[in-house]
Amino acid sequence: MEIWSIIIDDEPHAIAELSDIVARVPGISVSGEFDNVSEALAFVKEIGHIDVIFCDIQMPKLNGLAAAELLKAYCDHLIYVTAYRDYAFEAFNVHASGYLLKPVSTEAVVNTMLKVVQKRSRHSEQQSEELVFIKGGHKNSFSKLVLREVYAIEAMANYVTIRSTDGEHVTYMSLKSVAEQLRKYENFYRISKSVMVNMDHVKTVDGHMIRLTNDQVYTVGETHRSAFHEFVRKRTLRP
Fold first, then answer.
1. Below-50 pLDDT ranges, the chain
2. CA dist., res. 167 & res. 151, Å (int)
3. DSSP assignment of 88-157, as one string?
4. Which of 67, 102, 119, 154 is most buried, most CB within 10 Å of its CB?
5. Measured distance CA(202)–CA(22) in Å, rounded
6. Are the folds of 3-128 and 131-234 the same?
7. Domain ranges for the chain
8. Architecture of the domain spanning 131-234
9. Where are the transmembrane segments (predicted)?
10. Alpha-carbon distance 106 to 104, whole Å?
């Protein structure tokens, strides 16, 4: 899959050099070149999204570091290109995907883009793993379920109700069976005989009460309390 990028730099020769290098790297293309952040932002806002932004740091009006959050809202990977080593720590703090020193070499660009491709591949695999189907009410009917969007799963007699961001799904299987099949997903945690929650959606824990991000409240079952509170304790930041 082609990776689309833009370059932001107030020095025309720097844009030309980087553009020439990127053109020689298979699988990546430059769809725009800009000498300031404002024009680049206007472009990415118009198209909605860009895979990679190569951005200089020291520029007039708005520098690359100050614009980090604005740029990252419209791209998957922000890569800084600068003549200065001094900004590496700041780049790390804004979660930049790369830090290239000028004069930029083809090898440096290739190595950085390999890391980008690997991240994209892992993200794609993770998204694929999070996608499952559940049986519907008819023999050959199935509903797609994105696991990260699930709030909780509740046992109801011989079926379960799955509460998700897109509503409720009912499927005829036991909570025990669901728990066994979701065992590899550590964020799903059984808090009682009849309820399993997605810990990614837990907003607060107050004693034995759990409030989810959809404001649904559940009680941790007595036989699950010790294990649950140990789970929370291990993940609690301490002074």
1. 127-128
2. 10
3. HHHHHHTT-SEEEESSPPHHHHHHHHHHHHHHHHHHHHHHHHTEEEEE-SSTT-EEEEEGGGEEEEEEET
4. 67
5. 43
6. no
7. 3-128, 131-234
8. Beta Barrel (2.40)
9. none
10. 7
Helix axes 106-129, 12-23, angle to 10 degrees: 60
Which pLDDT value is given to residue 129? 55
- Cα separation, 107 vs 162, whole angstroms: 49
Q: How far apart are CA 165 and CA 96, in angstroms?
A: 30
Backbone φ, ψ for residue 113 (5° rounding): -70, -30
> Sheet of 98-101: strands edge to edge?
28-34, 3-8, 50-55, 75-82, 98-101
Give the C-alpha separation, 91 to 120, whole Å. 20
Separation CA 109–CA 117 (nearest Å):
12
**Residue 74 CB coordination number (10 Å):** 19
What tens digit of pLDDT does each residue of 47-65 get?
889 999 999 999 988 999 9
Please state the pTM of the whole predicted model. 0.54
Tokens representing 42 are 């206007």
At 121 the pLDDT is 63
- Alpha-carbon span 103 to 17, nearest angstrom: 9
How does DSSP classify residue 58? S
